[in-house]
From TrEMBL:
Superkingdom to which the source organism belongs: Eukaryota
Annotated region (Disordered), positions in chain: 149-230
Subunit (UniProt): Oligomeric complex that consists of at least the alpha, beta, beta', gamma, delta, epsilon and zeta subunits.
Keyword Cytoplasm: yes
Function: The coatomer is a cytosolic protein complex that binds to dilysine motifs and reversibly associates with Golgi non-clathrin-coated vesicles, which further mediate biosynthetic protein transport from the ER, via the Golgi up to the trans Golgi network. Coatomer complex is required for budding from Golgi membranes, and is essential for the retrograde Golgi-to-ER transport of dilysine-tagged proteins.
GO CC annotation terms, alphabetical: COPI vesicle coat; Golgi membrane
Organism expressing this protein natively: Patella caerulea (Rayed Mediterranean limpet)
Lineage of the organism: Eukaryota, Metazoa, Spiralia, Lophotrochozoa, Mollusca
Membrane-related topology note: Peripheral membrane protein
Gene3D superfamilies with a match to the protein in the record: 3.30.450.60, Mu homology domain, subdomain B (2.60.40.1170)
Cellular localisation: Cytoplasm; Cytoplasmic vesicle, COPI-coated vesicle membrane; Golgi apparatus membrane
Protein name, UniProt field: Coatomer subunit delta
Transit peptide is among the record's keywords: no
């Protein structure tokens, strides 16, 4: 084994944080750490010191030492490089190099140490990757939270509409229901001998019937409408609190708008037959150019809102030239689709299910050809003294696409302040809590197919990766279109509503 242990200790040799990467007893670890101060020569600055069995590689950090204990057979150059990476990790979690700060962040430091070394050997990671791994930032969690927020918003809107309906009914009952209520109970003292009309007999007498006034029709206890209003205030206050803490609620929804759109209420009114084309794209590209992987998964979903149009056939126009792999639902007639690009059930006497989203056709496309990328990102950081100048630019590679709500997230070093942006096409914000510079563009098409941003901040070129991108588009990437929908019995065309959505599952430049 090469690396035995890593520790942060003071000048007296007291270990504040220690992580062993091989099986070692506590007494042996404490003995090695206690022997370290005795081996150092006062007044001389070195980077390592050796004994008969181990080598101590260390770096002073104000009043503390970052210490690595290795075998004597290890490569000293690799040990020094590993030591520098360990030393750069400490300021990520500790603002002050004090013993109390190190102890408070001990668990976070141990988790970071485990990302650097595994079983005594260094992993091929940089500082940005360590930050990503320790944060455990899950895209699936973001999607889940975004979908949940959208569902809560829809439920809140629905409850608000329901509350208005209840209030409207109560007002109508207050106006027109009083006469029916009073006449139903009847009041012999109010009726006259000549026989007044129904309207006159339904009018209450204010002096003798105060309980049937308009104000009495209102419920005495708290109504559901009042409860809904209270919930709305609670939600709004919670959102306001998030915004006051620095969270941009709108921008977060934008960053995952590609996922939210899937479950949100459709923007168009659905006809008796509704068809939606959904595609999700995953891209991993290199920072020096080239495409590691591009994968697109698509599906056509059918929803029958009227049982009269359950027995239909759907015409599909496939103008894709990329080589997409198509697959129909098991209940769909494959011969009919392969022969005439028409989607229909194997048994034409059966109907599609009612009020259900049914996936009738799905497809997959995968490539490593960079010419198929919808959007290319070129991030070029260059060191300039004690800071780093970063130039980042985008270019639309597929002219037929229109990308909406584009958000480009660039990680930045922590503890050095906000970046200084010199030039930017579009808008930008800096999230200090996540140390991320977010570059937003409402639309990228042929009219603004390229743009750039330039900023400066203290850091290392590796600190600005991976760059994450999110967007959505109302045009299909694989260029599949719905031509028409016809009834099987009379071959008449059926009016249908259509939706197309392309969204990002993962889009990063590593």
């Amino acid at each position: 084994m090469v690396l035995l242990a890593a520790a942060v200790c003071n000048k007296a040799g007291k270990a504040l944080v220690s992580r062993q990467f091989v099986e070692m007893t506590r007494s042996r670890t404490e003995g090695l750490l206690a022997a370290f101060p005795k081996l150092m020569n006062s007044g001389k600055q070195h980077t390592f010191v050796e004994t008969e069995s181990v080598r101590y590689v260390y770096q002073p950090m104000e009043k503390l030492y970052m210490l690595l204990i290795t075998t004597k057979a290890s490569n000293i150059l690799e040990d020094l490089e590993t030591l520098r990476l360990f030393a750069r990790v400490i300021p990520e979690y500790c603002r002050n190099m004090e013993e109390s700060e190190i102890i408070d962040q001990s668990f976070q430091l141990i988790f970071a140490f485990d990302e650097i070394v595994a079983l005594g050997y260094r992993e091929n990671v940089n500082l940005a990757q360590i930050r990503t791994f320790t944060e455990m930032d899950s895209h699936e969690e973001k999607v889940f939270q975004a979908v949940r927020q959208t569902q809560e918003k829809e439920a809140k809107d629905q409850m608000r509409r329901r509350a208005k309906e209840i209030q409207q009914k109560q007002r109508e009952m207050a106006k027109g229901g009083r006469g029916i209520t009073n006449s139903g109970f009847g009041s012999s003292s109010y009726r006259n001998d000549t026989g007044s009309s129904v309207i006159e007999s339904s009018l209450p007498e204010p002096s003798s019937k105060p309980s049937y006034t308009a104000s009495s029709t209102k419920p005495s206890g708290p109504s559901k409408a009042l409860k809904l209003s209270t919930k709305k205030k609670d939600v709004d206050s919670f959102v306001g609190q998030l915004e006051s803490e620095g969270e941009r609620v709108v921008s977060v929804n934008k960053s995952v708008s590609n996922a939210v759109t899937k479950s949100s209420t459709p923007a168009i009114d659905q006809e008796a037959v509704h068809l939606s084309i959904e595609e999700k794209i995953s891209v991993s590209a290199g920072r020096d150019g080239g495409l590691n992987n591009l994968e697109v998964h698509g599906i056509i979903q059918l929803k029958i809102n009227d049982e009269r149009y359950g027995r239909i056939q759907i015409g599909v126009l496939n103008r894709d030239k990329k080589g997409v792999q198509l697959q129909t639902h098991p209940n769909v007639d494959k011969r009919l689709f392969s022969g005439s690009s028409v989607i229909g059930l194997k048994n034409p006497d059966k109907a599609f299910p009612l009020n259900q989203d049914i996936g009738v056709l799905k497809w997959r496309f995968q490539t490593q050809d960079s010419s198929f990328m919808p959007l290319s990102i070129n991030c070029w950081p260059s060191e300039n003294g004690n800071k780093c100048d970063v130039n980042i630019e985008y270019e639309l590679e597929q002219d037929e696409l229109e990308l909406e709500d584009v958000l480009i997230s660039i990680p930045c070093p922590t503890g050095v302040g906000a970046p200084v942006v010199a030039d930017c096409d579009g808008d930008y914000t800096y999230d200090s809590r996540k140390a991320t510079l977010q570059w937003s563009l409402p639309l990228i098409d042929t009219s603004n197919k390229s743009g750039s941003m330039e900023f400066a901040i203290a850091g290392h070129p590796d600190d600005f990766f991976p760059v994450n991108v999110s967007f959505m588009s109302k045009k299909s990437f694989c260029d599949l279109q719905i031509t028409d929908v016809k009834e099987i019995e009379n071959s008449e065309s059926v009016r249908c509503s259509k939706e197309v959505l392309l969204y990002v599952d993962k889009y990063e430049i590593v």
